[in-house]
From TrEMBL, chain A:
Family, per entry: Belongs to the rad1 family.
Gene3D superfamilies: 3.70.10.10
Biological processes, Gene Ontology terms: DNA damage checkpoint signaling; DNA repair
Cytoplasm keyword on record: no
Assigned keywords, A-Z: DNA damage, DNA repair, Nucleus
Entry GO CC: checkpoint clamp complex
Location in or out of the cell: Nucleus
Keyword DNA repair: yes
Protein name: Cell cycle checkpoint protein
Species, as recorded: Kwoniella mangroviensis CBS 10435
Automatic annotation (TrEMBL), chain B:
Keyword Nucleus attached: yes
Localization annotation: Nucleus
Domain of life from the UniProt record: Eukaryota
Species this chain originates from: Kwoniella mangroviensis CBS 10435
Homology family: Belongs to the HUS1 family.
Protein name stated in the entry: Checkpoint protein
Length: 341, 307
């Protein structure tokens, strides 16, 4: 009890953007539960017991991180929206203050004909915001005295005067379900570039209600030829049956969208699939991944034999990360929908 | 009743009009031989924010040029007009003169000038703007816009009175208005009211209280213009000056505060005065401070709070 007087947490950083980016990725509900440990923060958001999103925020995102373990676990519930708005008070941590990586994605064509009109405007707008955003960073000092106290966040705009102090109310945390994923019971394990999945989510029909994930293991028998298939499509089918493939299926009002990811070196970093896997998920939950994938590097999809899905999204590494460390991971877990016939 | 002037700085007049249009649909313009006053009375705007401003109309002033006025009432004319229509004309004039966004549009004229006249069309008094210049092919071009205006009667004029305010408790030079506006607009997502406080050490605080979070944004080392000597004489009950760290506060609606902050377009320096629990007065200078080009005065009424 010697450290009773010390604050439980003091964390400082000179740029809140990576921190805000992680929190925004799980910003699907107003309230979130924050758990502080020596390794950093784990911020959890649960949506009516069906979807669980966790942001793992390592200490490496902060220039200093002091944690004094209290007698009871350092866990509290807080308003995520308010924290995000506070972090963006100087306009340096908003969804638009992005780096070059996103502009490439942004100007990429999404639907036929769509890009042609707006491309120039988009680029111009980006250049303006990019010029402004480059120099300015918001620094942060976060302090929490302990249970029952407000979370104090001091923000400053580094170049000039203004500082903002925020006192966020903290609450007793709600009980979390947080079902554990069992890696021993895995049916599918896929790692690929975030961009691949992000672009796919863009292309899914907005009217679809369920999204089906389908995976074929390598070395499957070649499917029977379709009567009016072209030579190249037959070749493609045969090759994919050979190496295995991962498919996202969605049915909307105007038809079916199917996106195939063959198990090629260029596409998949890892593809472990022993037998055919097919599970469907709620598309509104799946759509939440879209925001989380923004600015991320790699995505890992794991499916249990029961259909329980765990998606882990890795953020780009910052400079001072040691080997084996990370700069933040977002994790989404959801159960499969009942199969309908 | 005669009125005619050249507009030497269309871009600036355009910006002033844009910041007024954020507040109200119509405005009163009082034209006198020395000054032009832009007035948005309190009942015009939904937030109770009022504007009483004056711009010098002298020869070679910031805004006008070759300004002539005559009338039976002290050589003054009061007109009321729709800001929307005025804005449309100024947008057109601004693009013709070629100052919008510094990038010359194809519609820009060279050697252009803009003149404004008070005319009559039948019984309807109108303001007519004439834009003259040469096209890229060196052809002379003239564009005329007309908007109906209402001439205010002496009775209506007498009804318009600048709000009376107590001696302000403190003056403080505001930080860059655009920066301030960005911060205040983010606060507006979280709370309805903001408490504006300042002290004589040059500290300015904006405090927003919401159920989930309290936010205070602080600026330090702002300059605090000392009160005029006249004020000190008037203050004859020999009150000691307040301690420099005493904060003076007023709570205003963020919506109203934001409306005043649209004047960041005008781009000048701004001074805020706090009359504790009464109002916030903001002076936005047009042109350089020492040029005495003019000033837009915004009155933002205080909101009474329980605490």
């Amino acid at each position: 009890m010697a450290n009773q007087d010390l604050p439980v947490l003091v964390a400082e950083t000179n740029d809140v953007r990576p921190f805000a980016r992680l929190l925004r990725g799980i910003g699907l509900r107003h309230n979130a539960v924050m758990e502080i440990s020596e390794a950093g923060f784990a911020v959890t958001v649960e949506e009516v017991r069906t979807l669980c999103a966790i942001a793992w925020i390592p200490t490496s995102l902060f220039t200093s991180f002091t944690y004094n373990q209290p007698s009871i676990p350092a866990t509290f519930e807080f308003n995520l929206d308010s924290l995000l708005q506070c972090l963006n008070i100087f306009g340096n941590a908003g969804p638009t203050s992005s780096n070059t990586a996103t502009s490439a994605v942004k100007s990429k064509r999404r639907w036929a004909g769509e890009g042609e009109v707006g491309v120039d405007e988009d680029n111009e707008e980006y250049q303006v915001s990019g010029r402004k955003g480059k120099e300015r960073k918001t620094g942060m000092r976060m302090e929490w005295t302990g249970q029952g106290h407000d979370l104090n966040v001091l923000l400053s705009d580094d170049s000039r005067g203004p500082t903002t102090t925020c006192e966020l109310r903290t609450m007793e945390p709600e009980e979390l379900m947080n079902a554990q994923f069992d890696p021993d019971d895995m049916a599918l394990y896929v790692i690929m570039k975030s961009e691949w999945l992000r672009d796919a989510l863009f292309d899914l029909p907005p009217s679809c209600t369920r999204i089906t994930l389908l995976a074929h293991p390598p070395k499957e028998p070649i499917p029977p030829r379709e009567p009016n298939a072209t030579v190249s499509s037959i070749g493609r089918r045969e090759r994919r049956a050979e190496v295995g493939q991962f498919t996202i299926l969605a049915e909307g009002d105007f038809g079916m969208t199917e996106l195939d990811y063959p198990n090629d070196k260029e596409v998949m970093d890892k593809f472990d699939c022993a037998e055919k896997v097919k599970f469907s998920y709620n598309s509104s939950h799946f759509a939440l991944l879209h925001r989380a994938l923004h600015q991320s590097l790699k995505v890992c999809l794991q499916i249990e034999k029961s259909g329980f899905l765990c998606v882990q999204i890795m953020m780009p590494l910052s400079e001072n990360v040691e080997i084996g460390g990370h700069s933040g991971i977002l994790e989404f877990k959801m159960h499969a929908l009942e199969e309908d016939d | 009743m005669r009125f005619r002037t050249g507009i030497s700085n269309v871009a600036l007049l355009h910006k002033i009009t844009r910041s007024l249009a954020a507040l109200a649909r119509s405005c009163v313009i009082r034209l006198s031989p020395e000054q032009v006053h832009f007035i948005v009375p309190g009942n015009e705007s939904s937030t109770g924010v009022q504007v009483w401003s004056s711009v010098s109309a002298e020869h070679c002033s910031t805004l006008f040029d070759a300004y002539k006025i005559e009338s039976n009432a002290n050589n003054e004319i009061w007109v009321e007009l729709h800001l929307d229509s005025l804005l449309k004309i100024l947008r057109s004039a601004d693009s013709s003169v070629g100052s919008i966004n510094e990038s010359r549009s194809t519609a820009a004229l060279t050697e252009s000038d803009v003149t404004l006249k008070l005319n009559k069309k039948g019984q309807q008094p109108i303001w007519s703007f004439e834009i003259r210049g040469y096209t890229a092919q060196r052809k002379p071009m003239s564009i005329t816009h007309e908007i109906p205006v209402k001439i205010l009667s002496a009775r209506r004029q007498a009804e318009l009175n600048e709000p009376l305010c107590p001696q302000p408790d403190i003056h403080v030079v505001l930080p860059n208005l655009l920066e301030l506006r960005n911060i205040v607009s983010r606060l507006s997502h979280m709370a309805d009211d903001v408490k504006v406080s300042a002290n004589h050490e040059g500290r300015l605080e904006l405090t927003a209280k919401a159920p989930r979070v309290n936010l205070t944004t602080t600026w330090n080392d702002l300059s605090v213009p000392s009160s005029n000597i006249d004020d000190d004489i008037a203050n004859d009950d020999d009150q000691p000056p307040p301690p420099p760290d005493q904060m003076f506060s007023v709570t205003v609606a963020i919506k109203g505060f934001l409306k005043f902050l649209t004047s960041h377009l005008v781009g000048g320096a701004a001074i805020a005065c706090i009359c504790e629990d009464h109002c916030l007065i903001a002076y936005v200078y047009i042109g350089e401070l020492n040029e005495a080009g003019g000033v837009l005065t915004f009155f933002v009424p205080a909101k009474m709070t329980d605490d």
